[in-house]
Every structure is written in C-alpha cells, then in structure tokens.
Amino acid sequence: MKISYLWALLLVLSFLSLFVGVANIRLWDIFHLTAAQQEVLWISRIPRLLSILIAGVGMSVIGLIMQQLARNKFVSPTTAGTADSASLGILVAMLLFPGATPLVKVLVAFVFALLGTMLFMRILRVLRFRDPILIALVGLMFGGIIGSVTVFLALKYDMMQSVSSWLHGDFSVVLKGRYELLYVSVPIIALAYVYANRFTIVGMGEDFSVNLGLNFRHIMQVGLVIVALVSAVILLTVGSLPFLGLIIPNIVSLYKGDNLRNSLSHTALLGAVFVLACDILGRVIIYPFEISVGLMAGLFGSAIFLYLLVRRKPHA
User: Fold this and answer.
1) pTM score
2) Fold assignment, 3-13+38-311
3) Dihedral angle sign, alpha carbons of residues 120, 125, 128, 130
4) Tens digit of pLDDT for each residue in 141-194?
C-alpha cells in the first residue's frame, strides 16, 4: 500500500470525524457555524480527533518497537504486561497520592510500566523456547497476574469504577482541557524515528549490535523508556486500546518488510486510520448512542490477530 493512499484515507476520515456525532453539524454549515456549533467543534470534536490521531500513532509505533526489540511478532504493550503494569501504577498513584496531578500519575505509571516491561524482557532472556506464540502466551499470563493485583487492590479500596474507566478505551470523554497530556508523547514518538536504525540493528541480537559498535543495553533501554512512557500517557488519557500495537505492525510488515525505518511511517499512519475508523463506526452503529473505541478495536483486532495466527508458517 502506497503511503499516499494512507494519507488520503486519513484526511478523509479526519474530515468525516468532525461531522459525526449527536450534535448536528453538517458539511455545508462549515462556512456559517453558529456559536453553539463552534463550541462543539473546538471543545469536543477537534480535541477528540487530535487525541485519536496521537493515540493511534503512539500505540502502533511502540508496538513496532517492542516487536523489534523482543524479536517477536506477537509481542505488544497489551501482550507483554506493559499496559497492565501502567494500570497498576495509576492505581497506586491514586491510592498513595489522592490529590495528585495527571503528570504525577503519568510518572508513577511510567515507572511501573518500565519495570513491568523490563521484567518481561528479562523473562524472554531466560526462556528456553523461542516459539512466538508461546512467548506471547507467557506475556498474556504475566499481564494477567499484574492485572489481577490491580483488580484486587481496586476492589479492596473501592476504586473499581475508577479502574474500569481506563481499562476500556473511550474518546467520548475527551474534551478541551482533558486531553493535552497526550502531547507529551509526541516528542517521544519522534525520538523513535531518530533511533529507528539502531532499533533495527538491536533486533538482530546483542552480538551483531556489538560488532557494529552499538551499545546494545543503552539502545534497549531507550526503546523500553519510549514504550513505557507512551503507554502510560495514552492509558491515563484515553484508556486501553487492545491489539492495536500487535496487529498494525504485523499488517505493515506483510508489504513493507521488517526494516523499522522503512515501515515506521506506514505503521503510524495505518494505526491512526484504524483507530479513527473504529471510532467513527462506534459512533454510527447504534446512533445516537456510542460504542467505545476499545470495544471496536478489540473486536476487529482479535479477528485480525486470529488471521495472523492462521497464516503463520509452522516451524520446521
């Protein structure tokens, strides 16, 4: 797929997103908007669109980075315990610092996400088997253990309702003044482009990286920091987007290969298009009510994930 097609599709869906919703704003009203329509656009529709684009790009890019670092196509923030660790971090921040600002919560969630991801990567280093599916199952079990701790603490301290709000991705609550934290992830995502070639080399193994003069551990740590920080910011702001970081890099690799620099732009654009399409569908299927984007992404993502499993070539 040419990148120009992705750009065109993204622009069309972005424009369409501004006119889909309960508040009646028609295309031909754009040049003579009422005061109420202007408020809907600037307070709700445009912030929602920006948050969708940032979240879609961010989760797809860090999914690609994780797969490159782990050398496994079935590793992602939602299948390696990263998102679950960030959720636990947010809950801990709410328990220990009840009046904490969103930035403090992000920092705590970032620390937990980083530690959880590093622990999972350590588990990968000691596993004897290298089958991608088995490693993904280990990641799911690892995330399930962390998630059970989160649910236990949430039930014990009567915070289950708060936990549920970020376990399911939902852009309906995004308003002006409540999504700007997502901008923190923009320069972090840009950093991924700077380190793209290094991540590709690190994905070939420690010995290969050292022979080319790279500091393997340093590049690995940079990648894990990018993954953990972007995961924490997106999770706290809009909630979990299941399968996104797993399926989008796999789809792109089918036609662009495994070179991270070559596929990074396609991954970012396709991720934004996928989330935007899921959000628009969620708004129109049972209009005037809305299906959360987390549910839509989980539905389509799980179907694509099953397809990827079926088409995977068995090991000799």
Assistant:
1) 0.88
2) ABC transporter involved in vitamin B12 uptake, BtuC (1.10.3470)
3) positive
4) 888 899 899 889 988 888 887 777 667 777 877 888 778 888 988 999 899 888
